[in-house]
Amino acid sequence: MWRRVTSVSHLTFAHKSTVNKNACTFKCWESFTTEIPRKEKTTYQRAKTPFITFVLGGPGSGKGTQCMKIVENFGFTHLSAGELLRREIASNSADGIMILNTIKEGKIVPSELTIKLIQKEMELSDNYKFLIDGFPRSEDNRKAFEQIFGAEPDVVLFFDCPEDEMVKRVLNRNQGRVDDNIDTIKKRLKVFTALNLPVVNHYLEKGKLYKINGVGTVDEIYKQVHPVFSSFHFEVRV
Ligand SMILES: Nc1ncnc2c1ncn2[C@@H]1O[C@H](COP(=O)(O)OP(=O)(O)OP(=O)(O)O)[C@@H](O)[C@H]1O
Ligand SMILES: O=c1ccn([C@@H]2O[C@H](COP(=O)(O)O)[C@@H](O)[C@H]2O)c(=O)[nH]1
Ligand SMILES: [Mg+2]
């Protein structure tokens, strides 16, 4: 039998809780009878300090593509917020229709819902290094994340790319996404400028932002990304 533990803040983010020291951070399941063996804690649950990277940039700026290379080289777990939302739609969950309509309009899904999906993936993970791709999308997202997690990201990557290049890439993507059409792209670009850029500026002011020139080949761009992570002395995979 398992019981829900409402706060394990002592297990997580011990040194990073500068935002809200009383924040209710992660929930986990803990055995409280001897009938069933105690569930193994994942690396993430054991780790006092997960390493969180927010990966920001406009639609088609290359966030997902560069995340794949960071995963390959540094063993991060990649959590694309958009992908988690698309998975929620595909699973016919109660929120699926609302999420689908929000994505079609290029708008932003309520913060608590996206954070719940991210949090669930992190709890299930065996890793402690996370790339959170395409989140936070707005100051509301950012504040809600920092409130719920009681922590700020370690690194924020921002892929800076001109609009015409982003539009070209998205229209050529061919992955069957409902939002990869010119009408929705225009809306996504407006939302990006109005709501996402303030988040970028916030982390710039905090000295956490790594601005990457998002124009060039995938490898040229990755050459700027690699040193960000090697400076933290993670094990590099060969
Ligand atoms: N440097 C690049 N040069 C040309 N094409 C690229 C480059 N990087 C990525 N692409 C292509 O552009 C498209 C968009 O890239 P990607 O999916 O990585 O962007 P994204 O920032 O994750 O976009 P979204 O926010 O819409 O999910 C993909 O088809 C990808 O293969
Ligand atoms: O935190 C988030 C992330 C995404 N969305 C919605 O999903 C689409 C697609 O996101 P991608 O990062 O481009 O895959 C985005 O336009 C939003 O509508 C969100 O609401 N919140
Ligand atoms: Mg993406």
From TrEMBL:
<feature type="binding site">
    <location>
        <begin position="134"/>
        <end position="137"/>
    </location>
    <ligand>
        <name>a ribonucleoside 5'-phosphate</name>
    </ligand>
</feature>
<comment type="function">
    <text>Catalyzes the phosphorylation of pyrimidine nucleoside monophosphates at the expense of ATP. Plays an important role in de novo pyrimidine nucleotide biosynthesis. Has preference for UMP and CMP as phosphate acceptors.</text>
</comment>
<feature type="binding site">
    <location>
        <position position="141"/>
    </location>
    <ligand>
        <name>CMP</name>
    </ligand>
</feature>
<dbReference type="GO" id="GO:0006207">
    <property type="term" value="P:'de novo' pyrimidine nucleobase biosynthetic process"/>
</dbReference>
<dbReference type="GO" id="GO:0016776">
    <property type="term" value="F:phosphotransferase activity, phosphate group as acceptor"/>
</dbReference>
<keyword id="KW-0963">Cytoplasm</keyword>
<keyword id="KW-0808">Transferase</keyword>
<dbReference type="InterPro" id="IPR000850">
    <property type="entry name" value="Adenylat/UMP-CMP_kin"/>
</dbReference>
<keyword id="KW-0067">ATP-binding</keyword>
<dbReference type="GO" id="GO:0006221">
    <property type="term" value="P:pyrimidine nucleotide biosynthetic process"/>
</dbReference>
<dbReference type="GO" id="GO:0019205">
    <property type="term" value="F:nucleobase-containing compound kinase activity"/>
</dbReference>
<dbReference type="Pfam" id="PF00406">
    <property type="entry name" value="ADK"/>
</dbReference>
<feature type="binding site">
    <location>
        <position position="188"/>
    </location>
    <ligand>
        <name>a ribonucleoside 5'-phosphate</name>
    </ligand>
</feature>
<comment type="similarity">
    <text>Belongs to the adenylate kinase family. UMP-CMP kinase subfamily.</text>
</comment>
<dbReference type="InterPro" id="IPR027417">
    <property type="entry name" value="P-loop_NTPase"/>
</dbReference>
<dbReference type="InterPro" id="IPR033690">
    <property type="entry name" value="Adenylat_kinase_CS"/>
</dbReference>
<keyword id="KW-0547">Nucleotide-binding</keyword>
<dbReference type="InterPro" id="IPR006266">
    <property type="entry name" value="UMP_CMP_kinase"/>
</dbReference>
<keyword id="KW-0665">Pyrimidine biosynthesis</keyword>
<protein>
    <recommendedName>
        <fullName>UMP-CMP kinase</fullName>
        <ecNumber>2.7.4.14</ecNumber>
    </recommendedName>
</protein>
<comment type="subunit">
    <text>Monomer.</text>
</comment>
<feature type="binding site">
    <location>
        <begin position="107"/>
        <end position="109"/>
    </location>
    <ligand>
        <name>a ribonucleoside 5'-phosphate</name>
    </ligand>
</feature>
<keyword id="KW-0418">Kinase</keyword>
<feature type="binding site">
    <location>
        <position position="177"/>
    </location>
    <ligand>
        <name>a ribonucleoside 5'-phosphate</name>
    </ligand>
</feature>
<feature type="binding site">
    <location>
        <position position="173"/>
    </location>
    <ligand>
        <name>ATP</name>
    </ligand>
</feature>
<dbReference type="GO" id="GO:0005634">
    <property type="term" value="C:nucleus"/>
</dbReference>
<dbReference type="GO" id="GO:0005524">
    <property type="term" value="F:ATP binding"/>
</dbReference>
<feature type="binding site">
    <location>
        <begin position="60"/>
        <end position="65"/>
    </location>
    <ligand>
        <name>ATP</name>
    </ligand>
</feature>
<keyword id="KW-0539">Nucleus</keyword>
<feature type="binding site">
    <location>
        <position position="216"/>
    </location>
    <ligand>
        <name>ATP</name>
    </ligand>
</feature>
<dbReference type="GO" id="GO:0009123">
    <property type="term" value="P:nucleoside monophosphate metabolic process"/>
</dbReference>
<dbReference type="GO" id="GO:0005737">
    <property type="term" value="C:cytoplasm"/>
</dbReference>
<feature type="binding site">
    <location>
        <position position="86"/>
    </location>
    <ligand>
        <name>a ribonucleoside 5'-phosphate</name>
    </ligand>
</feature>
